[in-house]
Amino acid sequence: MTKAELVVKIAEKAGMTKADAERCLNYFLDTVEETLVNEGKLTLTGFGTFQVDERKERVGRNPRTGEEIKIPACKVVKFRPGKLLKDAVK
């Protein structure tokens, strides 16, 4: 599903215009991003938890040449689904 398709579904379910639904979705995504940047963790009870995690620097290989390369440390966002989401997907 694309963002545009999600906007249409939200608009239909909430009985609002697509423009309003897109604005709401954008506000939600901005808030999630700000929370992860500032606090590092966001829990939506029943849905899941987004958490910023630190990856250590590591050594990898260039698949074409087999040459060793250094992969720098970085931050990544991880998602752990909540019980309700897990049960819904089963």
Gist of the model:
The chain is 44% helix and 31% strand. It is built from three helices and five strands. The strands form two sheets. The protein has a three-stranded antiparallel sheet. Strands 3-4 form a two-stranded antiparallel sheet.
CATH class wording = Few Secondary Structures
Overall number of domains: 1
Secondary-structure-based class equals alpha+beta
Q: What strand order characterises the main sheet?
A: 1-2-5
Number of strands: 5
Return the string of H and E elements.
Answer: HHEEEEEH
Distance between the termini: 19 Å
- The CATH architecture assignment turns out to be Irregular
CATH fold-level name: HU Protein, Chain A
Strand content: 25-35%
How is the biggest beta sheet arranged? 3 strands, antiparallel
Radius of gyration: 18 Å
Corresponding CATH superfamily: IHF-like DNA-binding proteins
Q: Averaged pLDDT, please? A: 95
Pfam families: Bac_DNA_binding
Keywords: DNA condensation, DNA-binding
GO molecular function, one term: structural constituent of chromatin
Protein name: Histone family protein DNA-binding protein
Which secondary structure elements does this structure contain, and how are they paired or packed?
Elements (H helix, E strand, L loop, with lengths): L2 H12 L3 H21 L2 E4 L3 E8 L2 E4 L6 E4 L2 E8 L1 H7 L1
Antiparallel strand pairs: 1-2, 2-5, 3-4
Helix pairs in contact: 1-2
What does this structure look like?
- GO terms for molecular function: DNA binding; structural constituent of chromatin.
- This is Histone family protein DNA-binding protein.
- Belongs to the bacterial histone-like protein family.
- A hairpin with a 3-residue loop joins strand 1 and strand 2.
- The chain has helices at 3-14, 18-38, 83-89; strands spanning 41-44, 48-55, 58-61, 68-71, 74-81.
- It is built from three helices and five strands.
- A three-stranded antiparallel sheet has the order 1-2-5.
